[in-house]
Amino acid sequence: MDAVVVTHVHPDHFEEKTAALMDHALPVCAQNETDAATIASWGFTDVRVLPDAGSPFGSLALTRVPAQHGLTPATDCSPASGVVLTAADEPTLNLAGDTVWYPEVARTLERFRPEVTVLNCCGATLASRGRIIMDEEDVLAVCQAAPWTRVVASHMEAVNHGNVSRAYLRTFVDRLGVGERVLIPADGEVLEF
């Protein structure tokens, strides 16, 4: 592992118990100053904040992009963010992060035109807030808005409040004719682009 990119500090992304198991000399890129301070308090010595305009990290540039971690700003579990990774002679990668489909996701897709987009899309729902990340309809919206991108379905069957399974998503995207663009990896599967 060369570095860690943290879209937000939530237990299913990055938290203190996991951090305790890691090499604290690893560079960690955090979405904002608040998360950076939390991560530094866990003992990491090289914590960087991702700017909106892109950050060089060796030959890789990382740009923090907006995310809405809930269906409305009032039910949003944010702050959360996405990250776009670009490098010469490599496909652009958009990690949408914990977000629902909303206009800023469309703007990110149009601005960066990523060849690969990773979506957290199990339709996770909280009783107090409603749906907090993408579901199958949001995956379809991404496919329709950005026909140039391959979608990787993430967060599948990983949290107990998820409502969309791998099998259901596969059936849904195949039935609607975008299945060839949606990859739904098994646990531990490695994808190369």
| Low-confidence parts | none
CATH fold assignment of the largest domain: Metallo-beta-lactamase, Chain A
Gap between N and C termini:
19 Å
- List SSEs in N-to-C order: EHEHEEEEEHEEEHEHE
Helix content: 10-25%
Which of globular, elongated, flat, extended, rod-shaped describes the shape? globular
The side-by-side strand order for the widest beta sheet comes to: 4-5-6-7-8-11-12
Mean pLDDT: 91
The level-1 CATH class of the largest domain: Alpha Beta
In angstroms, what is the radius of gyration? 16 Å
> What's the number of extended β-strand segments?
12
Task: Please describe what this structure looks like.
The chain is α/β, with parallel strands linked by helices. It has 2 domains: 49 residues, no CATH class; 132 residues, Metallo-beta-lactamase, Chain A (4-Layer Sandwich), CATH 3.60.15.10. It is 23% helix and 24% strand. It has 5 helices and 12 strands. The strands form 3 sheets. A 7-stranded mixed beta sheet has the order 4-5-6-7-8-11-12.
